[in-house]
Structures are given as structure tokens and as C-alpha cells.
């Protein structure tokens, strides 16, 4: 315990050296003065609190919020000095908010504790004292030999010692770590692989030396020294020897491994990074408004204090006869009196700051997030997956997105690969019915005979069949570990398992063509060529390095030759090739890319005996190095992978997901710019962008590629900027490669951003490894499956975020390499695809398909934003209405700090009387029908740029609150102040009319009018009424009346004073009071009604017009054809779209949702684009009757610079005149 406390305080770090030495089975040296290293235990702690620190830690975190801390100070002030209101008025709401939040956070942490206890208490088997002992996971120590059986998870990070297989290999899946659902093969060293029993493991003498723990899942540097017959044998250890905690053992009966990293030092625990706290634009606006209202509060308190002393300058008001001061009060310091009076006024007006705003917003976000999961339109039936909400703090941010950064493979595409074409020795081939056929030939030309492969063809197919990491299982695949099963119709009895769909597609293609990979056993790899078996000895695997962008295997052929096969990107293979059809292959690769195919280039190298001996020496030295191993391996690999003989290239197709083009088009119409980030080569990326609608055929494609220096990059950017300014085209698209992007971001960020801002679509291809930013490394397996996509997206996203406009960004991806991009963007969305779940776990939201993004933003984002924006503004409005009469009342009570409202009313106003209507409103409000929002994406622009929380809107709500408060106070004063027969029965008849009719009666009247008005004001703002809206709206008003009757109609024994006794009953018994309530409420709300009517008719917004369409029923018979939509289409399709307009006379202008600057057909000059579209319209509609056309008021300028939609009369055909 003392050691643990010292470690927590930082006085006793668990390890200080750069490496750790682990003795297998904890057999420490018996000679010398050996001091064992100290390691962490195997407990996993994901909880935040303990039973001892929950209260102080939770309170500290909650009072870091400005509003909570502010009300705590007010509460303490009320306890310390004599204030006009009871401490309960501030203490009870604060206690309510703190308690609700603490219960929520405590429950969540209790769930984490239960999960930790379940993991830490799991039974495991370890080898101790010559036998297999069962213990709990938390009791595993570094150095223990652990036994893990099939389908069990590894309880710690283990170095594999042996398995039930002779060669000492095992298969695992790391889906819970990096999201990869494929099977991966791990190896043991030959000296420990033979120790397959407990007795042999007990006699094993070995030492593992490795690096200290780090979070990188794909990096492990170490070596193992095994003492065998008195001889020490040293073997290198790498990531392929390490079994990570959280991974699961598959297709292997059992393994034994030695624990090297335990507990919170395991790689899984080190990857438990707290996601950066993302704050929405609404929250930032809310904090700004709070500061402004705090300024208003201080102003009112200071002004009231000054006016009090100004008023008391006269003796008759300073010490009236009915309130004589004591000697102590007369001798009190004037400064202290001023301070206490200021604090008293501060307490009196403190309710202008809405303490319940935070808890209401949290409840709205939490409850509102369920609607996304319940939306059946976001449910994917094939995979049985519904949308997920991982954080509800950013719901409203979905309605403010301006930039979307999307991954390509698995996000825009299905990540299901099909082999299409290949190039062998400069000749293009395609697969026809399982046969490799040269381009231009058909299956019939082969006369149905068995096609014999040439030497070059057979060598190429063998290289593809052997240069990979594919595994074979002869068992039925279990669970969903293999997402690519049965795609190509293979029997489960022999199933290929691959890290990527690319590799699986290529190996299955070679099998169909006659060269079958039959599996590997130890170092032996077997292939069958038309039934003839050949065995190759696997000598070395040259693992993927991000800088090399290729992987290789070194094999010994059946003839005894030493040969290297390599494959990778063409930029990583062709420069190192010295023979073969290099030029022809390069041309074929470009042709494949233009078709949108993913390409890989294959090559080989033969070694002489002397060369191979040098290769062995270099690899052994590099792999056994404990320091700078990666650098040494890179040098060795580069030296080996040269002087290559080019064999050919492959092209595989990745099918687009359903409705990708429609989704991207909807986002563009909504004013959202889409950036596609991919690792594919330039031609492939452009082809896919065109096919998915990211680029259009009419778009002017600009290129920033293959830049070699800063000066060259800057000059190209200037040329592009001039071209954008001078070219009169509809839209521009930009293509930038990784190397050029790196140069642009280094010295020319502003110029690069100026170009990007004027482009409707941006495509980033060939993202370079040097652009990674705090991202995890990927293995070559992932490199292939993701099309060489790297985590260079993070600096790109950060660049856009930090521009002066501060746009809201969204990143969407499906793989582990997309995590940093997802975490960097304001909103991160994970795709539940075939790349596992790491992107989903690190995202804010998760959906099954890219097409669901449209509804998530255009509908849910729209609703969430308008709901919470109205909630925030309404909260400030109703609190201004609440506290301003209190301020005005001080002018009539000599600033004596007399409260206008009863303490119970002060406490319950925000908690009970006005809380539920706005909460229900913020959950169910819909300005426009969801279907209209989806079919008219331009409505999204109406709420962009945080428009509903702009300073202008905030000022309107604030001034409206002050105006209503003045009407409440002075309306009650004017209508009731001079009424001497209030009750009608003479009970409160006053001879001196200046006494009005009582302080509490007047205050209750003002409070009653206020509750009714603010509730009805929200009712006027409500467009979508449900039974729940009616219940809470009218129920809140009824509850106030019922509560007031009970509170004032009964003498409560636990109350010290009861100033409100029978006040409310007598107030309601007066007809004059009812008349005043009705008149004041109408006076407040009638101008709002008039304003809404006039604005809706004179200056209607697009949203208001859409509401009118829905109410009048016109929307169901309408077809919307915008100028931007027509301009995107080929001429024939545009004619077809315009032909759907049955009667041009029925054209009506619907809204101006897209301005001229944003329109697809317009640009800054506003001339040539219109002329271009004018020619099209003239050709299509030139035969219309001019008289009828003039009556429809269709001008070319309106068609060009406005979003036009037309009413469709289904039964009236177009009248065309020759």
C-alpha cells in the first residue's frame, strides 16, 4: 500500500530505465546482488472515483463550472450577511442541480467499477511451482507463464512461448484493440516452441529484454535469451511475437506466454486516452451570454447601491421614525455598509443568471440523443445495425457543419474487392469465367480447351499467391470474426482469412486461375499449379514500413533458389525495378487507375549465394538490436529491395456504397463542402470522385500535384488562384497529393486556404506518412486494406478549424487509421463497416452507411440546433422577465432591498413553474417536416453560421424580456395601484391610495402575469404540437394556480412566517385582478403575433415557405428543380428534368435558398454562367408560347441566381408550339 501511494504521488516510479528485464517464470539470478525491477500489478482501473474521493472530487469538478461556482458564492453570501431573501432560494436550486449531476456521474462510475471488477476477477491459469494453478487476473505478475485457451482473451501482454502446434504459431483477432476483425498469425521462437507441457516450461531458463511500455499497438522491440545446454541463444522479438491484452485466441487450442506488460502498463490500457473534450458552438455562445448577463447583474447591483445612498442623503429617508438605527449601526464603517448593501442587491438580483439552464440543457441532450438510435431510417437491415450516439454533447453541432472530411475505402465504398484486370510482362489480362485471358480475346477464342499458362503468367500468379499474409482455416468460421466469408462462393471447409479484402480477392483470383495457395505449416508454404503441388520455404518476411510502402517475402524455391517477391504501390516498386516491361506496366497502372481500380505492382529478385549470405547477416544484426531497430531494419530492407525484376500489376475494384452520389449532392446543396481524403494514386482518386459525384463532369479540375519545392508549390498556388479568379466556370475542384500538401502547409497555408475556399470540392490523394500527426502506426496488412490511407487528415482538419472563420468540421471514417481525424474534427462519425470498431468507439456518432449522413445532418442536426438554440434564448428571456420587476420595484421601496416575490416563488420559478414546457419543446419541436428537410437540403443554410444564436437574435430576446418585464410591472401598477375596491367587497379598501393594495398581493399579481406570459410566449414559438406539449404547457399554468392556492390557503406549521397566507385566494376573487391579468398578457403577446404575421408575409424565409407548403398540402404534388441541379446534368438529362414540368404557366417561385455566389451556375461576375445556362434553357424551352412564358414571370436571371422550384399539376401536359 505504501509503495502504491508513493507511486501515485510520483515519488516511486515503477520503472526508470529505458528497458526492462523479465525473467521467465520469475527465476531470478541466485548469484550477485540482483535487485528485481518493480512492475505494475495486473489490475485494470477505468473508474474515475472511489468511495473515499467521490464527494470531494465530484464537487470540485462541478464547481469548476462558472454558474455553479457563482451560485455557491451567492449562497455563502446569504449565510454570512443579512440579505433580503432566504439562503434556501439559492441553496435549494444549487443543491438540486449538484445532486442530479452527482447521481448521474456516480451511476456511470459505478458501472465502470463493476466492469473493472469483472475483468480483474476473471479466472486465469498460470504455471507456478511446476503445476498449473488457477488464480484471478489481477494476481498475474510480470514474468508469470500464463496459459490461454481457444476463444479466451489474453489477460496481459504476453510474449508467445509455445502453442499446441508444432511450429509454435497461433491465430488471434484484435478487433477490440484496433478494430481489425481479421485473423493474424503470431509466432514463438524455435527454442521455446518445443516447450508445450508444464514440466518443460518449468525447466525453461530464459530472459526477455524489451522496451518499456508504450501505447503503440504495432511496435515492440525486444530479444529473448534462452539457455540451452549451457549455451545462450539470442533471438529477436517483434510485434509478431507479442500477444496483446484484450486480443482473442482463435483456431488454436491453447498457448503459453510470459507476461511482460501488466495492468495499466499494458498497451490496451495505455490506449485508454481520454478523448479531448469537444465543446459545441452553442455551448460557447451560452457561456458568452452568461458573461453578458453577469455584467447586467453587476450593473443593476451597483446602480441600486448608488441610488440607495443618493436617496438616503436626506435625513428623513436615511433614518425614518419607524426604523430607528442602533448605535452600532450608526458607527459602522461606510465602506463596509456599501459592500454589504452591494452584496445584498447582488443576492436580490442573482436569479437573472439561470442556474437550471445547465441541467436542462444536459437533460435535453441526453434524452434527445435517443431519437437518433430510434430512427428507423438510420437502421441498416442487412447488418442489423442502428445508429449509435457515443456523446450527446454535440447534438446541435450536427446542424452547423460546413466541412465534411471523409475517408474513401469502406466509407464511400463497400470495402468488398473484386479482381478485374492485371498486367503481366507488359500485356493486359482480364478474368473471364475463372480464366486469365489477354485483353481483346474472348473465352470462345480459347476453343474451350484448358488454357496453359506461359512462364511469365505462372510466375506472376505464384508471386501473388506467395507474397501475402493470408491464412487458411478448414473449420467453419466462428462468429463474425471474418467479414469477407462466402463473398466469392468458396466452401467453408477451406476459407481464406486475410487482413484486407485486397489480399483475399487476389489470392482467390489466383486460385480460380489455377494457382492455389494451400496454406503454410511452419516455414513451408504450399501452392498448387493446376493440381501440381510445390513447396516453398519461407525464409524471411520484410514487414511493411510506412516509408517504403511495400512488403516482401524471401523464399527458397523447390529448386533451391533464394528469391524475393515484393508488392506495393507503383511509386514504391517501379523506381527500384531494373528489368521487365517498366514503361508498359506504368501505362497499364495509369489505365487501371483511370477506371477507379486499386493497383498494386509485383516484382521479384533472385539472390546469389554470396548476396543471400549478406542479406542474412544484415537482417540478423538489425533484428537483434535493442536500440534504433526500426532505422536499422529500414536500411537493411532498402538494401535488399533493389535491382528488382518487374513482373506486373493488379487492379481490383471496390464497389461504391448505395446512394453515395445522392448524399454528396445533398450535402453540397446544403452548403457543405466535402473533402475526400485517400491514399490512392491520383488517377484512381479522381476516377472514384467522379463516379461518386464528388467531382462533376462540368467542374473545372485544378491540380496541385508532384510539387518538388516550396517555391514551385507557391508558384503553382498563385497560378491556381489567378485561374479561379479569371476562369468563368460554374465550379472548381481541387486535387492535391500528399507531398504537395506537405509543402503547402509548411510555408503557404494562407495561399493554400484561399484556393481551397474557392473550390466546391477538394480531393487529397497519396497522403504521405510524413504528414502523420500523433497517430498510431499501421501494419502493411492495414496499409493494403485501406488503400495506403494515412493519418495525415488530422493536420488538414486542424488547418480548416483554425481559419479565421472557424468553420464547424465533421470527419467520417470506418478504420483505425481514421481515429485521429475523427477526434480532431468538431464532430466525428464512425462507419460500422468491415474495418472493425475502433473508429466507432472513438467517434461521437456511428452509422452503418454513408448515405445515412444526409438525414443525420439535414434532419436531426436541423432539429437539434433549433431546439437548443430556442431553449438557451428562452431561458435568458424568462429570467429577464423574472428579475427585472424586482429591480424596478426598488425604485418604489427606497431601495430597501425588499423582495417583490415570496421566497418559495423565487425558488420554484425555474425548477417547477417554467421548466417542463421548454424541456418538452426542446425534445419535440419541428419547424419543418423531416421529409421536406431531406428533399430541400438548402433549408440547412438557414441555420448555418450559428444564426439562431447570433448577437442580433440574442439582443432581440433580451430586449423582449425587458419590454415584457416593464409591461408586467407598470401594467400591474397602473391597472391595480389606484383601484381602491380591489376585492369588490371592501375588505382591502384604503383611505390612502398611495398604499396600493399590499406588497405581497402586488408581487403575486406580477408573478402570475409573468408565469402565464412566458409560458404562452413559448406556445407561440411552438410549431409542432403533441399531446405532451399541450399537457406541460397548460398543466404548468394549472399547477401554478393549484400550488399557490394550497401554499397560501393553508397555515404550514414548519414555516416561520407565512406572508402569503390567503393572498392568492383574495387576489383571484377580484374581477379587477382577472381583468388586469388578461389585459397585460394580451399587451405583451399581441405585438409578437403582429410581428410574426408581417414578417412571414413580407420577408418569409425558406423555412417559413416550406411550412406554408406543408400546411396547404401543396408539397405532396411538387417537384423541385433548381438551377444548380440542372447545371450538373448532361444536356439530355437536363431536358428530361425540365420536361417533367407539365405546365410552365404554373411556375411559382418558391424561395431564394441559394444566393448567386453559392449557386452552381453562378460566380462572382454573375454573367457568363447565366449565359451558359441560358443557352441550355433556350434550347430546351424555346418552343414555349412567349405570351404564356411571360405570364409565368420566368426570367433568366431568376433561374440563374435563385433556387427555383415549381408546382406540378399532374393532369396538365405542357403545351409546346413549333
From TrEMBL:
Residue ranges of every copy of the P-type ATPase N-terminal domain listed in the record: 33-90
Principal location: other
GTP-binding as UniProt keyword: no
Binding sites annotated in the UniProt record for ATP: 407-409, 503, 544, 567, 598, 678-680, 766, 772, 817-818
Cofactor(s) needed for function: Mg(2+)
Binding, Mg(2+): 407, 409, 814, 818
GO cellular component terms given for this protein: early endosome; endoplasmic reticulum; Golgi apparatus; plasma membrane; recycling endosome membrane
Family in the record: Belongs to the cation transport ATPase (P-type) (TC 3.A.3) family. Type IV subfamily.
Biological processes annotated in GO: phospholipid translocation
Active-site residues, as the UniProt record annotates them: 407
Residues covered by the P-type ATPase C-terminal domain: 840-1101
Quaternary structure and partners: Component of a P4-ATPase flippase complex which consists of a catalytic alpha subunit ATP11B and an accessory beta subunit TMEM30A.
Protein's membrane topology: Multi-pass membrane protein
Catalytic reactions of this protein: a 1,2-diacyl-sn-glycero-3-phosphoethanolamine(out) + ATP + H2O = a 1,2-diacyl-sn-glycero-3-phosphoethanolamine(in) + ADP + phosphate + H(+); ATP + H2O + phospholipidSide 1 = ADP + phosphate + phospholipidSide 2; a 1,2-diacyl-sn-glycero-3-phospho-L-serine(out) + ATP + H2O = a 1,2-diacyl-sn-glycero-3-phospho-L-serine(in) + ADP + phosphate + H(+)
NCBIfam families, A to Z: ATPase-Plipid, ATPase_P-type
EC number: 7.6.2.1
Protein name (record): Phospholipid-transporting ATPase
TM annotation in the entry: 66-81, 288-311, 342-361, 904-924, 954-976, 996-1019, 1031-1055, 1061-1086
Domain (P-type ATPase A): residue spans on this chain: 124-186
GO MF terms held by the record: ATP binding; ATP hydrolysis activity; magnesium ion binding; phosphatidylserine floppase activity
Record's keyword annotation contains GTP-binding: no
Record function comment: Catalytic component of a P4-ATPase flippase complex which catalyzes the hydrolysis of ATP coupled to the transport of aminophospholipids, phosphatidylserines (PS) and phosphatidylethanolamines (PE), from the outer to the inner leaflet of intracellular membranes. May contribute to the maintenance of membrane lipid asymmetry in endosome compartment.
Subcellular location: Early endosome; Endoplasmic reticulum; Golgi apparatus, trans-Golgi network; Membrane
Amino acid at each position: 500500500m505504501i509503495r502504491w501511494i508513493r507511486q501515485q504521488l510520483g515519488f516511486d516510479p515503477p520503472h526508470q530505465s529505458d528497458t526492462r528485464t523479465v525473467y521467465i517464470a520469475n527465476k531470478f539470478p541466485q548469484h550477485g546482488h540482483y535487485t528485481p525491477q518493480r512492475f505494475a500489478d495486473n489490475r485494470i482501473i477505468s473508474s474515475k472515483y472511489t468511495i473515499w474521493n467521490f464527494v470531494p472530487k465530484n464537487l470540485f469538478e462541478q464547481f469548476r463550472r462558472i454558474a455553479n461556482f457563482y451560485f455557491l458564492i451567492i449562497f455563502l453570501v446569504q449565510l454570512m450577511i443579512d440579505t433580503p431573501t432566504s439562503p434556501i432560494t439559492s441553496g435549494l436550486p444549487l443543491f438540486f442541480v449538484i445532486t442530479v449531476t452527482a447521481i448521474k456521474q456516480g451511476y456511470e462510475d459505478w458501472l465502470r467499477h463493476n466492469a473493472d471488477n469483472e475483468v480483474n476477477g476473471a479466472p486465469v491459469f498460470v504455471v507456478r511451482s511446476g503445476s498449473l494453478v488457477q488464480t484471478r487476473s489481477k494476481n498475474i505478475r510480470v514474468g508469470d507463464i500464463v496459459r490461454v485457451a481457444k476463444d479466451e482473451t489474453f489477460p496481459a501482454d504476453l510474449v508467445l512461448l509455445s502453442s499446441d502446434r508444432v511450429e509454435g504459431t497461433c491465430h488471434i483477432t484484435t478487433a477490440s484493440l484496433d478494430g481489425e476483425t481479421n485473423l493474424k498469425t503470431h509466432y514463438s521462437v524455435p527454442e521455446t516452441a518445443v516447450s508445450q507441457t508444464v514440466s518443460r516450461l518449468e525447466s525453461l531458463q530464459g530472459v526477455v529484454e524489451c522496451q518499456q511500455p508504450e501505447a503503440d499497438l504495432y511496435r515492440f522491440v525486444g530479444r529473448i535469451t534462452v539457455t540451452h545446454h549451457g549455451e545462450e541463444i539470442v533471438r529477436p522479438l517483434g510485434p509478431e511475437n507479442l500477444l496483446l491484452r484484450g486480443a482473442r485466441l482463435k483456431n488454436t487450442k491453447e498457448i503459453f506466454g510470459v507476461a511482460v506488460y501488466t495492468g495499466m502498463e499494458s498497451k490496451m490500457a495505455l490506449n485508454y486516452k481520454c478523448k479531448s473534450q469537444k465543446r459545441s458552438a452553442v455551448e460557447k455562445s451560452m457561456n458568452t451570454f452568461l458573461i453578458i448577463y453577469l455584467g447586467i447583474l453587476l450593473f443593476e447591483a451597483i446602480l441600486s447601491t448608488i441610488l440607495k445612498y443618493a436617496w438616503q442623503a436626506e435625513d428623513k429617508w436615511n433614518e425614518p421614525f419607524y426604523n430607528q438605527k442602533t448605535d452600532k449601526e450608526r458607527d459602522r464603517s461606510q465602506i463596509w455598509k456599501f459592500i454589504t448593501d452591494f452584496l445584498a442587491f447582488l443576492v436580490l438580483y442573482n436569479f437573472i443568471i439561470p442556474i437550471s439552464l445547465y441541467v436542462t440543457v444536459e437533460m435535453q441532450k441526453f434524452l434527445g440523443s435517443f431519437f437518433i438510435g430510434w430512427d428507423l431510417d438510420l437502421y441498416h437491415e442487412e447488418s442489423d445495425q442502428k445508429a449509435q450516439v457515443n456523446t450527446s454533447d454535440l447534438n446541435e453541432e450536427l446542424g452547423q457543419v460546413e466541412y465534411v472530411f471523409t475517408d474513401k475505402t469502406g466509407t464511400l465504398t463497400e470495402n468488398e474487392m473484386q479482381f478485374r484486370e492485371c498486367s503481366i510482362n507488359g500485356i493486359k489480362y482480364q478474368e473471364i469465367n475463372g480464366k486469365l485471358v489477354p485483353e481483346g480475346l474472348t473465352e470462345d477464342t480459347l476453343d474451350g480447351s484448358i488454357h496453359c499458362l506461359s512462364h511469365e503468367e505462372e510466375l506472376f500468379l505464384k508471386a501473388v499467391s506467395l507474397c501475402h499474409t493470408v491464412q487458411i482455416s478448414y473449420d467453419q468460421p466462428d462468429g463474425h470474426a471474418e467479414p469477407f466469408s462466402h463473398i466469392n462462393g468458396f466452401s467453408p471447409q477451406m476459407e481464406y482469412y486475410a487482413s484486407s479484402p485486397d489480399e483475399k480477392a487476389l489470392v482467390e483470383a489466383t486460385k480460380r486461375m489455377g494457382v492455389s495457395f494451400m496454406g503454410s505449416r511452419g516455414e513451408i508454404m504450399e501452392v498448387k499449379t493446376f493440381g501440381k503441388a510445390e513447396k516453398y520455404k519461407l525464409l524471411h518476411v520484410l514487414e511493411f514500413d510506412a516509408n517504403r510502402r511495400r512488403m516482401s517475402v524471401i523464399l527458397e524455391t523447390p529448386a533451391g533458389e533464394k528469391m524475393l517477391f515484393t508488392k506495393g504501390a507503383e511509386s514504391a516498386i517501379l523506381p527500384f525495378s531494373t528489368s521487365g516491361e517498366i514503361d508498359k506496366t506504368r501505362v497499364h497502372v495509369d489505365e487501371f487507375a483511370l477506371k477507379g481500380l486499386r493497383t498494386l505492382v509485383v516484382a521479384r529478385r533472385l539472390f546469389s549465394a554470396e548476396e543471400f549470405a549478406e542479406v542474412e547477416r544484415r537482417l540478423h544484426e538489425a533484428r537483434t538490436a535493442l536500440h534504433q531497430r526500426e532505422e536499422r531494419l529500414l536500411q537493411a530492407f532498402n538494401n535488399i529491395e533493389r535491382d528488382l525484376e518487374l513482373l506486373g500489376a493488379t487492379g481490383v475494384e471496390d464497389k461504391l456504397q448505395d446512394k453515395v452520389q445522392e448524399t454528396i449532392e445533398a450535402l453540397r446543396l446544403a452548403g457543405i463542402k466535402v473533402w475526400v481524403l485517400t491514399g490512392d494514386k491520383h488517377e484512381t482518386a479522381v476516377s472514384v470522385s467522379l463516379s461518386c459525384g464528388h467531382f462533376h463532369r462540368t467542374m473545372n479540375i485544378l491540380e496541385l500535384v508532384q510539387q518538388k519545392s516550396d517555391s514551385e508549390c507557391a508558384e503553382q498556388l498563385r497560378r491556381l488562384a489567378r485561374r479561379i479568379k479569371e476562369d468563368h466556370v460554374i465550379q472548381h475542384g481541387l486535387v492535391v497529393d500528399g507531398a504537395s500538401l506537405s509543402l503547402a502547409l509548411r510555408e503557404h497555408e494562407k495561399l493554400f486556404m484561399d484556393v481551397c475556399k474557392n473550390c466546391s470540392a477538394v480531393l487529397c490523394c497519396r497522403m504521405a506518412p510524413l504528414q502523420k500527426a500523433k497517430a498510431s502506426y499501421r501494419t502493411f496488412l492495414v496499409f493494403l486494406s485501406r488503400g495506403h490511407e494515412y493519418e495525415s487528415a488530422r493536420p488538414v482538419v486542424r488547418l480548416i478549424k483554425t481559419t479565421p472563420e472557424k468553420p464547424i468540421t465533421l470527419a467520417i471514417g470506418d478504420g483505425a487509421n481514421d481515429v485521429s481525424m475523427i477526434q480532431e474534427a468538431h464532430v466525428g462519425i464512425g462507419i460500422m463497416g468491415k474495418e472493425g470498431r475502433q473508429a466507432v468507439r472513438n467517434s461521437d456518432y456511428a452509422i452503418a452507411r454513408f448515405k445515412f449522413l444526409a438525414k443525420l445532418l439535414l434532419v436531426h442536426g436541423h432539429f437539434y440546433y433549433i431546439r437548443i438554440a430556442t431553449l438557451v434564448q428562452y431561458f435568458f428571456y424568462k429570467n429577464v422577465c423574472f428579475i427585472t420587476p424586482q429591480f424596478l420595484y426598488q425604485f418604489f421601496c427606497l431601495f430597501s432591498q425588499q423582495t417583490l416575490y415570496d421566497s418559495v416563488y423565487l425558488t420554484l420559478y425555474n425548477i417547477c413553474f417554467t421548466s417542463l414546457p421548454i424541456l418538452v419543446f426542446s425534445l419535440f419541436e419541428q419547424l419543418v417536416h423531416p421529409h421536406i428537410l431531406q428533399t430541400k437540403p438548402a433549408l440547412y443554410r438557414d441555420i448555418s453560421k450559428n444564426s439562431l444564436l447570433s448577437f442580433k437574435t440574442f439582443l432581440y430576446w433580451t430586449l423582449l424580456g425587458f419590454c415584457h418585464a416593464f409591461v408586467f410591472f407598470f401594467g400591474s401598477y397602473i391597472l391595480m395601484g389606484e383601484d381602491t375596491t380591489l376585492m369588490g367587497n371592501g375588505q382591502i379598501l384604503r383611505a390612502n391610495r398611495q398604499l396600493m393594495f399590499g406588497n405581497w398581493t402586488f408581487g403575486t399579481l406580477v408573478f402570475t402575469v409573468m408565469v402565464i406570459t412566458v409560458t404562452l410566449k413559448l406556445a407561440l414559438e411552438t410549431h409542432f404540437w403533441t399531446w405532451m406539449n399541450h399537457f406541460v404547457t397548460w398543466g404548468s399554468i394549472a399547477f401554478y394556480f393549484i400550488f399557490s392556492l394550497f401554499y397560501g390557503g393553508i397555515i404550514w406549521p414548519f414555516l416561520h412566517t407565512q406572508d402569503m397566507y390567503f393572498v392568492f385566494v383574495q387576489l383571484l376573487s377580484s374581477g379587477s385582478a382577472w381583468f388586469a391579468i388578461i389585459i397585460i398578457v394580451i399587451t405583451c403577446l399581441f405585438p409578437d403575433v403582429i410581428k410574426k404575421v408581417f414578417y412571414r408575409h413580407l420577408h418569409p424565409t425558406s423555412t417559413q415557405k416550406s411550412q406554408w407548403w406543408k400546411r396547404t398540402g401543396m408539397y405532396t404534388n411538387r417537384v423541385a428543380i433548381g438551377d444548380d441541379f440542372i447545371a450538373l446534368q448532361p444536356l439530355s438529362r437536363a431536358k428530361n428534368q425540365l420536361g417533367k414540368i407539365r405546365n410552365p404557366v404554373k411556375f411559382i417561385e418558391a424561395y431564394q435558398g441559394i444566393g448567386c455566389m453559392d449557386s452552381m451556375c453562378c460566380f462572382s461576375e454573375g454573367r457568363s454562367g447565366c449565359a451558359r445556362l441560358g443557352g441550355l434553357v433556350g434550347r430546351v424551352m424555346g418552343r414555349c408560347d412567349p405570351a404564356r412564358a411571360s405570364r409565368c414571370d420566368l426570367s433568366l436571371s431568376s433561374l440563374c441566381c435563385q433556387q427555383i422550384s415549381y408546382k406540378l399539376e399532374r393532369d396538365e401536359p405542357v403545351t409546346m408550339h413549333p
